[in-house]
Amino acid sequence: MNEREKGAQDWYKKGTEAMNHKNWDYAIKAFGMSVMLMPEIVLYRQNKHGCIRKSYSDNGSGAKMAGMRLMGVRGRVKKCRMQKDWKGVETATEEGLLVNPWDAQLMFDLGDACENQQNLTIARYALERAVEYDKDNIEYNRRLGHVLFERRDYKPARACFERIYRLNSNDSDARSMMSRIDAEATMDRGGYDNAENTRDVKVEQPAAPVDAYEADRLARKGTPKAVDAPGESEESDLLHAIRKDPRNLNLYLKLADLYIKDRQFGKAQDHYNKALEISNGSADIREQLHEVQLMMLRNDVSEAVDRARKNPSKERLVEKAKTLKEELLAKELEFFTHSVELHPNDMRKKYELAQRMMNAKEPAKAIPLLQQAVSDPRIKVESLVLLGECFTNDGKLDLGRRQFEKALDGLSATDKPDPFKRAHYYLGRIYEKAKKVDQAEHHYGEILAVDYEYKDVKKRLEDLGDGEDGIGE
Q1: C-alpha R_g of the chain
Q2: Which of 220, 228, 280, 388 is the most exposed place for a label (fewest CB within 10 A)?
Q3: What is the pLDDT of residues 101-115, one digit of tens each?
Q4: Which residues, in sequence order, are CB contacts of 429 under 8 Å at separation 6+?
Q5: Can you give the pTM of this predicted structure?
Q6: Is 156 strand, coil or helix?
Q7: DSSP labels for 72-106?
Q8: Domains identified in the chain and CATH numbers
Q9: What CA–CA distance (Å, rounded) separates 258 from 166?
């Protein structure tokens, strides 16, 4: 334990003792010192803010005339934000929360500042508080939804975008993100997304995944059910509304979204096609159609990989899974390229396209996309890690090393375990190739400290010194 950690824990103990004696002022000071020494530990923040609330007897509004007293703080936040002084924003918001710990805007500003400093655990905590204090704020929900999505916490992320959609059914980002979350959740359940071959797919996949195509076919062919009364079925209500107003574009979009939520991708595709026809080829609707087509393909791939995993001796099943994965990658490249052309300032889309370029073994095409994506603080470290991989796989080892080292300045195994391990792994391989044993051991050791079974790290440490020429995975 270093001096900073020890000091933070000592102050935490003092704060806990003061809190138990309801000495709120001293407890706030003590927990504040813990926060100053270890700003990434969420427990310290929670206790500090909890004691501030207690000091105001949980009145929900803070100090008297809090609004006026916070005017100076808000001015400092605005000035620091313009200068991109994120530590200054964080400091100012913490001072403001001493006046009113229920202020949703201050909590949002704190989350924003921490996200821009790559302190994602605190960013999530603060943004969750902001949404708790102002549930119908679209900006707060959107920011929290993206943070949760990046951390693969799909259910609460989707809830954020559902709230936005209920508040504004024309919000294209909310529609798009709900579709993306559903797709990513499907990929994660399928377990093939990060697997290098069918043998790597996790055993924990669902034993009987939903067959959306078959369900859709049976739904079309099956015995008609009794007609629902108005208000009993959202699907029936929308179908009835469409029959009365067949040119109402919004009705088709709502029904398609409903089908996506129920994983009836075939029906969703039909209604997006109809919406596309009514809108005279709207680019936004075409993009939504692309998203549902990708969901259908991902579902097919997931099922094919699952069957191949269960029957590894059946070459036909293994080959089919491989073919479908290649088809999915080709479609993703096509659709994401189109999406980047439509949204040239959306760095996240460029990052996603770059990922597919890497999967297609075209690192040179991914590099310029990632060089732009690093400008978005929300995906900066992931973009740097992927950029490092691109340079390394393209034979530019020194350029790759520099990207990984820059990424590690903002990476922790807690917040972003996968990029953290990949950066250290590549650096270990680069230093191993350069015969720099101490540096290679250091990076491999960082991985083993958090994941003892990661790739071939244990064996590389044991064999270090023998060397390998290759770098790529």
Answers
A1: 26
A2: 280
A3: 999 999 999 999 999
A4: 440, 460, 468, 471
A5: 0.54
A6: helix
A7: HHHHHHHHHHHTT-HHHHHHHHHHHHHH-TT-HHH
A8: 367-473 (1.25.40.10)
A9: 13
